[in-house]
């Protein structure tokens, strides 16, 4: 384990404590060009079956933190271990193949059909590598499209699919290598209300059907979090202000502290509601 290029992907151990999926210790990220400290002193542990919300104001460092978990970048200081492999001691291209990462900056050929886009998740490539996809791989791509409620889109070019459909197709793509960790960077970006609810339903089903899958979702809106969200991490200017079970972290007090302005947090039917004011005292949650 932890030898250069020797990828170790743990199997489910028979233990009461779910296995660690990712562990971050004392992590700092500094941009060499601007010398800006983007992340500072981050400690975080993600276990199998946990569903994390990653929240913080614009520029707080959420995407950067997600990139560390996705083995897309290395920390300047501290250690990042993903699926039992420490960044810096493993071939990150191999490791990335075991992590589902959906981000808005993802490059996707617009003329490729939804089925083809999902297939490319098997090879982790932008363009399809046709010779690598056998019948079983093609069948899996179809099944994942069905699971994400996109079966009828299989032959439709990705570029003409709606924002909500594209989000679900990209999640199906990310699930092709059966990842233990699924990272979602603002998956609800620019979705209308029905599309948002469809995606929330899809994430809820994923959590129910895949009990050992861990997810981390970056969002700006508590209303977008499925009721299966179990944990939350709040970031402010590159530092963690709160981290733990949602019941302890998604409170008006801790959200107010994180965003630096009064925020009310309420909960209805398992989902969250948040409202921000300016200058007023935080009101009691509804
Ligand atoms: N490649 C880069 N070069 C220089 N600075 C960067 C780079 N990437 C990120 N930053 C800076 O790092 C800080 C954190 O950026 P990051 O994208 O992680 O924040 P974020 O919380 O995801 O923001 P948002 O909510 O606006 O997407 C910002 O100040 C940003 O300008």
Give a brief outline of the structure.
The protein has eight helices and twelve strands. The chain is of the alpha/beta class and 286 residues long. It has a six-stranded mixed sheet, sandwiched between helices. Strands 2-1-4-5 form a four-stranded antiparallel sheet, with helices on one face.
Describe the protein in words.
It contains 8 helices and 12 strands. The protein has a 6-stranded mixed beta sheet with strand order 6-7-8-3-9-10, sandwiched between helices. A 4-stranded antiparallel beta sheet has the order 2-1-4-5, with helices on one face. The model has no long low-confidence stretch (mean pLDDT 90). The chain is globular. The chain folds into 2 domains: 190 residues, P-loop containing nucleotide triphosphate hydrolases (Rossmann fold, 3-Layer(aba) Sandwich); 70 residues, no CATH class. By secondary structure, the protein is an alpha/beta fold. The structure holds adenosine-5'-triphosphate (ATP). The site of adenosine-5'-triphosphate (ATP) has 11 residues, from helix 1.
Q: Largest sheet, if any?
A: 6 strands, mixed
Tell me the Rg in angstroms: 19 Å
Shape field: globular
The number of distinct helices, counting runs of at least 4 residues, comes to: 8
Order of helices and strands: EEEHEEHEHHHEHEEEHHEE
CATH topology of the largest domain: Rossmann fold
């Amino acid at each position: 384990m932890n030898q250069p290029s020797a990828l170790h992907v743990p199997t489910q151990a028979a233990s009461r404590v779910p296995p660690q999926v990712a562990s971050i210790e004392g992590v700092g990220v500094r941009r060499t060009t601007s010398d800006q400290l983007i992340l500072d002193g981050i400690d975080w542990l993600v276990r199998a079956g946990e569903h994390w919300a990653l929240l913080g104001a614009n520029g707080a460092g959420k995407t950067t933190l997600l990139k560390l978990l996705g083995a897309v970048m290395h920390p300047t200081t501290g250690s990042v271990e993903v699926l039992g492999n420490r960044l810096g001691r493993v071939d990150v291209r191999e490791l990335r193949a075991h992590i589902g990462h959906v981000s808005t900056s993802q490059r996707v050929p617009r003329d490729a059909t939804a089925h083809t886009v999902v297939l490319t998740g098997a090879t982790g490539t932008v363009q399809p590598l046709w010779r690598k996809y056998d019948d079983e791989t093609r069948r899996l791509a179809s099944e994942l499209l069905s699971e994400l409620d996109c079966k009828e889109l299989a032959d439709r070019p990705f570029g003409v699919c709606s924002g909500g459909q594209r989000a679900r197709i990209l999640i199906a793509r990310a699930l092709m290598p059966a990842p233990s960790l699924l990272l979602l960077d603002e998956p609800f970006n620019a979705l209308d209300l029905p599309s948002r609810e469809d995606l929330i339903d899809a994430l809820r089903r994923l959590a129910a059907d895949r009990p050992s899958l861990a997810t981390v979702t970056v969002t700006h809106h508590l209303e977008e979090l499925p009721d299966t969200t179990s944990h939350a991490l709040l970031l402010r200017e590159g530092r963690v202000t709160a981290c733990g079970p949602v019941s302890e972290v998604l409170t008006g007090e801790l959200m107010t502290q994180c965003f630096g302005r009064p925020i009310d947090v309420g909960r209805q039917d398992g989902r969250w509601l948040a409202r921000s004011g300016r200058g007023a005292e935080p009101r009691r949650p509804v």
